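Input for the complex:
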Amino acid sequence: MSNEWPLWEVFIRTKGGLSHRHAGSVRAPDAELALRHARDTYTRRLEGVSLWVVPSAQIVASDPHQAGPLFEPAESKIYRHPTFYHVPDNVKHI
Amino acid sequence: MTTASSSTGHRSDPALFDYLLRLGDDSLILAQRLSEWCGHAPMIEVDLSISNVALDLVGQATLLLDYAGEVEGKGRDGDKLAFHRDALRFRNCLLVEQPNGDFGQTMARQYLFSTCQRLLFRGLAQSTDARLAGIAAKALKEIEYHADWSAEWVVRLGDGTPESRERMINGFAWMWRFVDELFQVDEIDAAIAKAGIAPARDSLRAAFNAELKKTFEAATLPLAPLPAAILGGRKGHHSEHLGHLLAAMQFLPRAYPGATW
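Predicted:
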């Protein structure tokens, strides 16, 4: 039985203005029940104000074996961080 | 009517006390039944769903029975009423004490109860009794979820595989006898309705039937006339099942009075 229900990835928005973040996964026979299972499993302690569920099979993931070519070239590109600007003292909230 | 609006104006009001026991015991006994599923549900997600509903119902029972104890005015609180009362003193409807059976039978019971409870508590949220109106408004958000959730399962099992459909039909077959009791009006209900404290239960029947028809059509399940009703829960005449349920629920506080952890 347990292998017949597809897996769904659960994303929770913890409060207004923040983005949805991955919380975990649930099994459910369809989208509507996946939302209910996500609500019952991951928002029992006021964790969220909005839920997304996505069929796990629809997630396209990067290949761990490609992690070197994909991510390591960014290590030596410190100029991509906006840290070389002089911020005037009077500019607040940056 | 106006005298009923104060939350402290009901001391030793026997009708209100009995009415609150009926509401509180419905939630309490169904909570205990549902909690029997804990660790046994078909899936971990469903296990959590059922436990959540059970905990919601415990919360409702606590508020309602605490209030009942205050109305009675003999120093009994919700715990005392829950754990130190015998079966004959319980005022829950027979539906909620029925055994879980399989998942289909549990969902049949939940759907029938929550659908009726939703209609009742919508009315209670407008009660002339401010304390009860507050409790009902809080509970209503939970009940809306329980009613929708159980309806989803009735539709999925009814319109699912041949086996799930048969189990859903059998689950309802067990419960139909206990539906009429949900809408019975005796002298206590009449007095409470007259005071504007609660809607008369028979006034909820048409909306309940319409809801039932809608769900059963979606579930492609047949609706037949109800069998002869079994009544008695509101007067303390319960099925054999309640005694066993209470034995499990009440054992610890009775064997170890005042136990804490």
